User: What shape does this take?
Amino acid sequence: MSDTGTRLRPQTVTKVARPRLHKVILLNDDFTPRDFVVMVLKAEFRLGAGQARRVMITAHMKGACVVSVYPRDVAETKAARATDAGRAKGHPLTFTTEPEE
Assistant: This one.
């Protein structure tokens, strides 16, 4: 028997960084009807009626409310679509995004 040594190479593990998440924020305005805001929250963000109403009231009372958190491209798309839905009906409804801390 020959004494040949085999050495194992160390395996390199590649870690994939998770995408940075962004918050979708509903901004309060005093002109958009509350029922319309609830309808947009239910349609675009798939919130239940109770949750949508709580988000709307929080934004009304505090000036803004985080609706949900998504990867950047999804957050920007949802915010734009929800804002556009308000603009299409003539309301100043506004959603913005910002990076999560």
Summary: The mean pLDDT is 93. The radius of gyration is 23 Å. The longest strand covers residues 64-71. Residues 22 and 73 are 9 Å apart (CA to CA).
